[in-house]
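Practice problem 4.
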């Protein structure tokens, strides 16, 4: 009895996410969860990159109004935009302040070499999975003390 075993790398069949980040237009759909002090916030996001413009649509649920933000690919992103601070008397701004849009996209897609931004550590608790033919992390977690920001990737598509 003879058994034949083939050794091939899955990565050779998977397009490089890094190349896509630099050249292609795409959309990322997912959910976010935020825990800061006594604030718990969650919702969904749709991030659409076309050329050097990034449109970010945020919502808490599909029944409430969405917020739309537009950025240049190299702009700094204000993660406190993910929560509705007026509703909760939120004045403390512990979010990472030195994060560019392109870095956030790279973090969500698992292609950023950063391990820390300001006092926030980056973790991929579930490792890498295949979503729509791309090897990406299903969850990206930013942690600082008792606070956390979690991005859960649901869909990644080229447009």
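Answer key:
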């Amino acid at each position: 009895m003879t058994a034949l075993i083939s050794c091939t790398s899955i990565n050779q069949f998977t397009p490089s996410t890094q190349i896509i980040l630099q050249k292609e237009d795409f959309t990322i759909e997912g959910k976010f969860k935020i825990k800061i002090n006594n604030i718990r916030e969650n919702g969904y996001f749709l991030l659409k990159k076309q050329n050097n413009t990034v449109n970010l649509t945020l919502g808490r649920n599909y029944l409430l109004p969405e917020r739309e933000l537009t950025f240049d690919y190299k702009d700094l992103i204000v993660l406190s935009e993910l929560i509705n601070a007026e509703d909760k008397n939120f004045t403390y701004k512990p979010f990472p302040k030195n994060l560019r849009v392109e870095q956030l996209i790279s973090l969500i897609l698992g292609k950023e070499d950063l391990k820390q931004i300001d006092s926030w550590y980056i973790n991929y608790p579930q490792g890498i999975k295949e979503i729509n033919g791309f090897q990406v992390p299903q969850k990206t977690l930013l942690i600082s003390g008792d606070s956390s920001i979690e991005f859960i990737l649901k869909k990644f598509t080229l447009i």
